[in-house]
C-alpha cells in the first residue's frame, strides 16, 4: 500500500509556499514587473485551488469539533481571498500597471498573509485528531491535489459557496 501524505506537514509546506509567493507577488507588482507578477499569481492560483478545496471539504469540517462556528469565519476569509485573487488577476491581465495599481496589487497580496498565518495555526489542533481522522484528511488532501483545479476555476465552477 502506498504511503499517504502527511496532511500536517503538507498543510504547513503549502502555507510556506503561499507566503513566499505572496511576498514575491507583492514585490513584483510594486516594481511593475508584470511577467513575474503574472507567473507568480499563476503559481499561487495553482497551489491554492487544491489547498482551499481540501480545507473547505475536509479540514474545516474536522475543525468544527474544536472551533465550532468559528470555522464559518475561515470560509468567509476564503471568500475575501478569492475576491482578492480575482481583482489581482484582472489588474495583472492589463498590458501595464500604473504605480497606484501596482501598489494596490502588492497591498492585496500582503493582506492575504494574515489568513495564511492564522490558517497555519490550525496545525496545532490537528495534533488532537485521531489517526483515522488524520488518514481521512490525508486522503482528502491527496484527492484535492489529484483533481488539480486552480483556485479561481474551483471557486467559479466547483465550490458551492459563490463569490462575485
Describe the protein's architecture and organization.
- The protein has one domain (7-157).
- It is built from seven helices and no strands.
- α2 (34-67) crosses α7 and α3 runs antiparallel to α4.
- With 164 residues, the chain is mostly helical.
- The relative contact order is 0.20.
Descriptors:
164 residues, mainly alpha
Mean pLDDT: 93
The biggest beta sheet is recorded as: none
Please mark out the parts with pLDDT under 50 across 5 or more consecutive residues, or reply none: none
Determine the fraction of residues in helical runs and give it as a percent range.
Answer: over 70%
Topology pattern, helix = H, strand = E:
HHHHHHH
Q: DSSP helix count?
A: 7
β-sheet strand percentage: under 5%
Q: Tell me the structural class.
A: mainly alpha
Head-to-tail CA distance between termini = 43 Å
Task: Indicate the radius of gyration in whole angstroms.
Answer: 16 Å
Number of strands: 0
- Taken from the alpha-carbon principal axes, the silhouette is elongated
Number of domains: 1
Write the layout of secondary structure elements.
Elements: H1 7-31, H2 34-67, H3 70-92, H4 99-120, H5 123-126, H6 131-147, H7 151-157
Provide a short characterization of the protein structure.
With 164 residues, this protein is mostly helical. It is 80% helix and 0% strand.
